[in-house]
UniProtKB/TrEMBL annotation:
Nitroreductase domain segment(s): 29-203
Coiled coil (residue ranges): none
Protein's UniProt keywords contain Oxidoreductase: yes
UniProt KW keywords: Oxidoreductase
Organism: Paenibacillus agaridevorans
Family label: Belongs to the nitroreductase family.
Name of the protein this chain belongs to: NAD(P)H nitroreductase
Length: 228
């Protein structure tokens, strides 16, 4: 794990094979797509590239609690369909990414901060203090607070993954409606890991539905303005 984290510090990540779509266009074009072209395959290397970019998302104390189970096997995707309440996009998408939270992410604090020392981002003394303090803090949190915290962080990485996919010309749909215990049983996932989102990714067979948003003046308040 330390070697993996160390290599990620050194690598200069770039998005390949796309036309550098402007950021605001990426945001504006993202849709939740539920119909996919099941003839499209995404290479493992490209999936790893997108996940590497997504994993640059922020997290509490840089603990990076997200973990990803990537399903590309057709038989496994078929087995996920009933677990996802028979939503067809699970079988049709090129891949299904199960975004999970590691409830023991603090056990990697030495690796995470050690990589920062090697990169010159912090001193050994600062690292030692941070490892001790954060390990103590996170390991003593009430279970419900810890779950809330890591689930929040996985939401950040999931959004970044969806935007990265769109920048590369792929489509996604975030799914919270599935049997989490069923996923854990099928894939042999231990209770250390909390499945949060199921994220199909591929090429749309039909466009995602257009949707509206509340007027910005209805949801933004400045300087303590009265909230209805």
């Amino acid at each position: 794990m330390a070697q993996l984290i160390d290599s990620q510090v050194k690598v200069q990540t770039s998005i390949t094979g796309h036309n550098n779509i402007p950021f605001f266009q990426v945001v504006g074009e993202r849709r939740s797509v539920r119909k996919y072209d099941n003839s499209v395959r995404i290479a493992d290397e490209e999936l790893l590239e997108m996940l590497t970019i997504a994993a640059k998302a922020p997290s509490s104390a840089n603990m990076q609690p997200w973990r990803f189970m990537v399903i590309t096997d057709e038989e496994l995707k078929a087995k996920l369909v009933p677990i996802a309440f028979n939503q067809s996009q699970v079988a049709e998408a090129s891949a299904v990414i199960i975004v999970m939270a590691d409830l023991e992410m603090y056990t990697l604090a030495e690796d995470i901060y050690g990589a920062s020392v090697k990169a010159g981002y912090m001193s050994e003394e600062v690292k030692t203090n941070m490892v001790a303090n954060y390990t103590k803090m996170y390991s003593s949190l009430p279970a419900d607070r810890l779950r809330e915290l890591v689930a929040f962080d996985t939401g950040l990485v999931a959004m970044q993954l969806m935007l990265t996919a769109r920048a590369k010309g792929y489509d996604t749909v975030p799914m919270g409606g599935y049997n989490r215990d069923g996923v854990k049983e099928l894939l042999g996932i231990s209770d250390r890991y909390l499945p949060t989102l199921m994220l199909p990714i591929g090429k749309a067979a039909s466009p995602g539905h257009q949707s509206t948003r509340l007027p910005i003046e209805n949801i933004v308040y400045f300087n303590g303005g009265k909230m209805d």
